[in-house]
## 1
Amino acid sequence: MSPNRNPLHESAKGLKPVADCIALGALADRARALDALDERLRHLLPAAVARETRLADVRNGRIVFLASSPTWASRIRLYQAALLAEARAALGGAVERFAVKVAPLPTVPPEPTKPKPLSAATARHLRATAKALSDPELRALYLHLASIAADDPE
């Protein structure tokens, strides 16, 4: 290796400036379109296969699915003809090839859970505790918590 050669600098030559990359709006539109197509295609599959597979990409006339294991990859291949026909219908006939890759499926974040309201009994306990506290700031915090309880009479 020559003394003037920097491998870090050389590997960075292939990077593009952010301005030269795809626009964020176009990227979001593509993600939404892939998600809609994924949902449409997986409706053709049995529930167990649909749970273990996801549409990963559509490019150059090929649809690519991800399967969580080789077993699920084999099972989705059984539906290749139906999936290709549906993809052609959805995309105007631009799909000719089908591929499956085995990879961990991306996780879907759970829906945020709605916080449970405080009960009236909890509000009473908070007020009773607040009365026993000598610190005025802490007392105010306890009383504020008690005031947001469900069906709080006070």
Note: Confidence is low (pLDDT under 50) at residues 5-12.
## 2
Amino acid sequence: MNSIVLTQPRAVVFDMDGLLLDTEVLYREVMAEACSELGHEMAVEFHSHLIGVPKDRGAQILLGHFGPDFPLAVFHERTAAAFAARCENAIPVKKGAYELLRELGRRNIPAAVATSTHREAALDHLQKAGLLNLLATVVTRDDVEHGKPHPESFLTAARRLEVDPSTCWALEDSHNGVRAAHAAGMATIMIPDLLEPTEEISKLCATILPSLMHVLRELAQLTGR
């Protein structure tokens, strides 16, 4: 862990998949199924390289692994269709997401999302999850030139919220997300999902917590309420 001491934030910027939404396991399942249908095997170890990676970078990783003839367009169509079918009526939400966002609202601490997902899908998923109206702004892959691990998405969120990045907490579950948030100068809290922190990632975090409920407790301890 780095030397940043957590103080009450002026704003909190959340990642989306694997952090607010319990969707990374679903993505892993539908991606593996699509690969199987196309005659390939997606091992869990390989999938880990795609977590927290923007779609354009993910495409490069897929082609590098499966070869230049891998049918990317078909793969993306099948994974999107399968994910949509599984989440047609609702999106699974991480425990503590509603409680933490509502508590931030009660304290007048604005919350934002900084995600590598494209805008249409991100807004749809947050709406279905019942979280969209609890957020002040949503920064998607369509809103920035550079995806994570570049800090642009977090810096854009801070700019929209009109706060200094150094006064923000950033909550992330992926290695690339942690790198991006730390590079933006935010107090970075990792909440591991499918990826455990490495030595490198641990050094970039102000703290590592098991869940959003633990973040809520951390916030309460800072103010004694």
Note: The radius of gyration is 17 Å.
## 3
Amino acid sequence: MGEEKQRNYTGFAGHRLLASGELTEVALKAKKWLDRGDSASILIFEDETGNLVDLDFRGTLYEFLDKLEKKRTRRAEAEPATEEPKRSGPGRPKLGVVSREVSLLPRHWDWLNSQPGGASVTLRKLVEEAKRDSAGADRARRSQEAAYKFMSAMAGDFPGFEEASRAFFAQEPERFDQLIQPWPEDVREHVRRLVAIAFRDQASVLREES
């Protein structure tokens, strides 16, 4: 089993930034905030995806830490292995191959079967090549989605949100920055950080294509 990929999280109490960093650190800040009796709603986001993290803050601090550790362990166990495949015997590496149905036209199967190594080897090579070729575009798409998810969740009812969204997707950073200026400071600054990453990744794709 591979090591869990390091992720960064950001927590908000209402429009106030609580913490940004590893999940346990952010979750503990949120738990302490709630235990003080503060009524602001807590939202914790995974920065890479913009997804909200579902945590159960009920119970004592010890109970909360136990639930958090179990959640982290389940996620780590679900991660794909990243280490080199182990060999199960001489000349028989354990590759972790998963068999699934693929529907192709007869001429496609004829071509695949005629390639060195046969259809399965050729398909794996084609997938790896496609992943390499689209790596920049995939990264740009993910960062754009992450920024928009956070912006929608935290600023969807803010003034200028629709116009700011259009400026974001139109790659107009100066107009975007002007439109989000009236937003609460902590939300605005985190949006800026995520959007800057998305603009950078989009610009990288354009350079590669030019």
Note: The helical segments are 23-35, 61-78, 106-113, 118-133, 135-155, 161-169, 173-180, 185-209.
## 4
Amino acid sequence: MITARRGIRVGGWVFAPGPLPTLVYAVLLGLLIGLGQWQLDRAAEKRSALAARADATDAPVMALNDRPASLARHEYRRATAEGRYDTDHQFLLDNQVQDGRIGYRVLTPLRLTGQDAAVLVQRGFVPIAGSRQTLPELPPVDSPARVSGRIGSGPSVGMRLGEAADGSGDWPRRLQYIDFEAMNAMLDYPLSDYVLVEGSLSTDAVARRSDRDAWRFGPERHQGYAVQWFSLAAALTVIWLVVNTRRPTRGESS
């Protein structure tokens, strides 16, 4: 039986790793392999999401007045809706950036014709007007309105801290993040659990830009990062082998 102290003889060399370097190596190796696998999982998720997005985009356009939709079943689907905008109860999603400017995404409920429900429509971006204490003027709407766009979850935020909306109670309400349950509680009619991003996927400039920004970090980038992590794991293994391999001393048996 070969002891750890004497090591393993390979030709004219002895491989004798110490317990502490081996422990450090094992921890780092597990970390690097885990990071590489995580990037591969992210790449698989992106491929699956892109496939779902392509299938939904190719599907027939939904008429939301005739057929109810949900985010879980119909994300990315093209859809149309007819109704009247509730301009008295609009939301401003804070901390949004477009073309280097900071501002808000305008979210307006569209009361569907013939229904008591409403669809939340993302109508575009408005920059901050001078002081943050003064809310900007919102773009006007047609009434009645016919909206075409795509179904989505709405703009994301980095972290969700505190309440979704400010405590002023005035309208429009400023949001830190989209919380459909909280928004429903502020209205006296049911609100969809998705956002209808106004504009056609093929023609609307804002929609095209948001799609490009959302998917510029595609599966290929994740695969490239995975290769980097696995390469570091391989390099670490080589270093560990080299550092712990030496020529045998005279006192060591052959």
Note: Residues 45 and 219 are 8 Å apart (CA to CA).
